[in-house]
Amino acid sequence: MTALRIVRLANFVTPRSGGLRTALRCLGAGYRAAGHEPVLVIPGERASDEMIGPDRVITLPAPVVPGTGGYRVLVGRAPLRQLLEALGPDRLEVSDRSTLRWTGAWARAHGVPSLMVSHESLTGLLGVWGTPAPLGQRLADRLNARSAATYDQIVCTTGWAAAEFRRIGTSNLTQVPLGVDLEAFHPDRRNPEVRAEYVADGEVLLVHCSRLSPEKRPELAVDALAALRAAGVPATLVVVGDGPRRGALAQRAAGLPVHFTGFLPDRDRVAALLASADVVVAPGPVETFGLAGLEALACGTPVVVNAASALPEVVGDAGLGADGTGAAFAEAIGALLARSEPVRRAAARARAEGFGWSASVEGFLRAHDAPVRSDAPVGAYGRSGVPQGGELRPNA
C-alpha cells in the first residue's frame, strides 16, 4: 500500500476549541493508523513545527479575530504557499471556508487532489448574523458553488449540512458522519460525587457544554432553566465552556442556580458531568453535527437540541428537538424526564454506538481516494478511533 502525505489546514483551532479540535485529532490518528502521514497546519501566536503525540502539527503565526474570544485565522498567503510547496502533499484537506478558500486553486494548479470539509452551514450562519433570508441564500449559493468548483470533493457530516450544496446541484459531494469516543464517554463515567456537587437527591441536573459564543445560543439553556424553575421543577444548570458571551450569560443567570465551570481541559471530568446529568442541552441553531451532544449520548444522557440544527438527525429518538425559545426547551426537557430513566439512558447509549470513529476515518479516506488498510489494528487509535496519547496543543 502506498502511504500518502495528507496535509490538513484548519482555522479557528485553539487549546480551548471543541468539536473541530476533536475531529482533527481523531481523524489524523485514524489516517496514521491506516498507514498514511497526516500533517496538520493551524494558526497560532508563534511559528512551530512539532510532534504532538504521534502527529506532526505545524503552527503559523496568525492574528486574533476580534470578538471571538481568541480564535485566529491564517491570512498570509505567501508563508502558507511556501509551506505547502515544501511539504509536497499527496492530498489536501481544508477545514475552513473563510481565508483558506484559495488553497483549492493552489492544489489544482499543483496536481494535488483536494477536499474541503464543510463544518458549518453558510446559510445558517448568515441568518444568525442577521442577513435577510433571500439575500443570505443567494450569497451562500454563490460561495458554495465556488467551493464546489474549486475543490475535488466537498465533505459534509450530516444531510442537514449537505442540503445547501444539494440545493445548487453539487455533484462532487460526499456525506461522512463524525464519530465519538465510546470508551472515554461511557455510562460508567456517571459519578454520584460529581452530581452531589450541584444537586441534592431528587433534583434535576442539566448540563450545557459548548463554546459560549452567539451562534451557539447558550442563553437558551439559561432561559430553559428559568422556565423549569418557574414551573416548580428543582433544576440546576452547569455550563461547561467559555467564550465571549460568558459575562452576558452570568448576568442573565443572576438569581438562578447556574454554575459556570469555564473551559475544562480534563476530558474525564467533562465525561463525568455529562454522564451524571439528567439531560444535556444543545441549543445551537446552526450546528452541523454536534460532537458534544453525541458525547452526552455516549454517556447515556439524552439531549434536547435545537430543531433548526442538524442535531435532530444525529440524536434520533434518543433526544428531542425544540424550537428556539427557553419555554420550548423546558417543555422538551420535561418530556425526556417523563421517560423511565433506564429506558432513556439505554436509548442514548445505543444511538451513540452507531457513530464509531473507525467508520468516519474510512469514509474520509475514501473521499480522498486514499487506500484504506483493512488490516489496520483497531487498537492503533482506540476501539472507537481515538488516538492513544497526545493532545492537539497549538500555541496560544
From TrEMBL:
Keywords: Glycosyltransferase, Transferase. PANTHER family: SULFOQUINOVOSYL TRANSFERASE SQD2. The keyword Ribosomal protein does not apply. Residues 18-179 form the Glycosyltransferase subfamily 4-like N-terminal domain. Residues 376-396 are annotated as: Disordered. It comes from Micromonospora pisi. One of its GO terms (biological process) is carbohydrate derivative biosynthetic process. This is Alpha-1,6-mannosyltransferase. It holds the Pfam family Glyco_trans_1_4. GO terms for molecular function: glycosyltransferase activity.
